[in-house]
Amino acid sequence: MSKKNIILIIASMGIFVEALDIAIINLAIPSIQKTFLLSGDKVQWLQTFYVLFYGGFLIIGGKLSDVFGRKKIFLAGCSLFLVTSLGAGLAGSFELLLLFRAIQGLAAAFVMPSAFAIVNYYFTETHERGKAIGIFSSFAAIGSGSGLSLGGLISSYWGWQWVFFINVPVLAAVIILAAILLEKEKTVKAQKPDILSGLLLVTGLVILSFIVHLLPNFEQNSKLLLPLVAALAGCIYMVRYRITKGKNPLIDPSLFRIPSLSAGNGAFIALGAFFTSYLFLISIVLQQDMHFSAAKAGLILVPYSLLSAVVARFILPSILLKLKVVGTALLGMFCMLAGGLVFFLAVQHDTLTLLLCAAALISGLGMTICFTSFSVLAIQQVPAAHVGIGSSMTTTAYFFGGGMGISLISVFMPHNHLQHEVGRVPAIILCLYAALGVIWLLWYNRKQSANNSTQDISYPNADSLTATTPLANQKMPGDRLLQ
């Protein structure tokens, strides 16, 4: 095996572990609840903190990779992920577990962009790079898709601690190989990223999650809500001020006015809210409502991971050619909505057959179609010089939606750790997330149709974006992956 291919595997394993950890914890949640005597509305913070810290620091991670070098940031991110995985598995209290889980999200925000930069650096020829990115992306998809199944098996036979411990030997090998094989980079003079804006962004996201969590009991929590709202307003003002007035803004404000990027970000928020909440709810339904063991619940969901891979490889490229990007995005979101409705019926009637149909529509079809088409849609009109930051924005939008979505769902979960039923309200909210995604995409499609063509769009501050032609007329990085 060539050195380049080994490096590709190293980078891919880094992203595999990051993606795996988003899903793997879900079927271990009931065991964690029993260990620490937690209610459903409290245990969800394990996912909320991870996705908010991941999404909030992702852009910072990308910029740090540019400033300090992809090798240094990749090694730092993997090392931090290893330490926090070990700490989470050894945690003796829920508060300590929550702290390590949040820092895991920060570590993932360092790993993801630096791993992607490594692939782009070592694979320069167009066809070779497209193939390498395809392999890299497949590791992320496999990690995300297999997480539920592995989480169930591991927590049943080894204990929930091992959903964290399993990362340690994998990351240790990755760190050793990366330290030996990755080239030492030349020091590049570059402006340091606006880290304060990143910290304010994450703080604002966490505060917003707490506000959503406290709203149902407004009278009891009014003394807490008022200062939280004030703090949130301060964070929003500071981030907005620094983006528009700062010398080196975290994000070029002109990017927010690109139609396809705005459409993609909105769709990703809805998708994040839906899918993160779905993973949380299905783990509870299978184990606590339908009384399956974690191992059996994991095995039940294996076929949908395989279906997702088949759809991505053999079916999705043809759908994209026939329906175009927006049509494919709508198809994916309609699959999510249909799956959400079937999931609601499964919860109402406690029927495994309906639950499996929902899993097929959501995990097997909807997620693969949505994630790919939303990614292509978002960067369709982004100037080539800003595709990297545009992609980071979409990932941030996805995790922001996930954090907010699961926070709202948790409000309607049982507050007694002895009470397990999911109930109809969380399932209804799940359907509303998908419905909002469908409405958003229909609105965008209608708006674009009214404009007749997206090819003549003039971008605000186009000169600052260093591009003259919308990427709708150019070959996109995603085009090669879909062929």
Automatic annotation (TrEMBL):
<feature type="transmembrane region" description="Helical">
    <location>
        <begin position="425"/>
        <end position="444"/>
    </location>
</feature>
<feature type="transmembrane region" description="Helical">
    <location>
        <begin position="73"/>
        <end position="92"/>
    </location>
</feature>
<dbReference type="Pfam" id="PF07690">
    <property type="entry name" value="MFS_1"/>
</dbReference>
<feature type="transmembrane region" description="Helical">
    <location>
        <begin position="160"/>
        <end position="182"/>
    </location>
</feature>
<feature type="transmembrane region" description="Helical">
    <location>
        <begin position="194"/>
        <end position="212"/>
    </location>
</feature>
<keyword id="KW-1133">Transmembrane helix</keyword>
<feature type="transmembrane region" description="Helical">
    <location>
        <begin position="98"/>
        <end position="123"/>
    </location>
</feature>
<feature type="transmembrane region" description="Helical">
    <location>
        <begin position="298"/>
        <end position="316"/>
    </location>
</feature>
<feature type="transmembrane region" description="Helical">
    <location>
        <begin position="224"/>
        <end position="243"/>
    </location>
</feature>
<keyword id="KW-0472">Membrane</keyword>
<feature type="transmembrane region" description="Helical">
    <location>
        <begin position="44"/>
        <end position="61"/>
    </location>
</feature>
<feature type="transmembrane region" description="Helical">
    <location>
        <begin position="391"/>
        <end position="413"/>
    </location>
</feature>
<feature type="transmembrane region" description="Helical">
    <location>
        <begin position="353"/>
        <end position="379"/>
    </location>
</feature>
<protein>
    <submittedName>
        <fullName>MFS transporter</fullName>
    </submittedName>
</protein>
<keyword id="KW-0812">Transmembrane</keyword>
<dbReference type="InterPro" id="IPR036259">
    <property type="entry name" value="MFS_trans_sf"/>
</dbReference>
<feature type="transmembrane region" description="Helical">
    <location>
        <begin position="328"/>
        <end position="347"/>
    </location>
</feature>
<dbReference type="InterPro" id="IPR011701">
    <property type="entry name" value="MFS"/>
</dbReference>
<feature type="transmembrane region" description="Helical">
    <location>
        <begin position="135"/>
        <end position="154"/>
    </location>
</feature>
<keyword id="KW-0813">Transport</keyword>
<dbReference type="InterPro" id="IPR020846">
    <property type="entry name" value="MFS_dom"/>
</dbReference>
<feature type="transmembrane region" description="Helical">
    <location>
        <begin position="7"/>
        <end position="32"/>
    </location>
</feature>
<dbReference type="InterPro" id="IPR005829">
    <property type="entry name" value="Sugar_transporter_CS"/>
</dbReference>
<feature type="domain" description="Major facilitator superfamily (MFS) profile">
    <location>
        <begin position="7"/>
        <end position="449"/>
    </location>
</feature>
<feature type="transmembrane region" description="Helical">
    <location>
        <begin position="264"/>
        <end position="286"/>
    </location>
</feature>
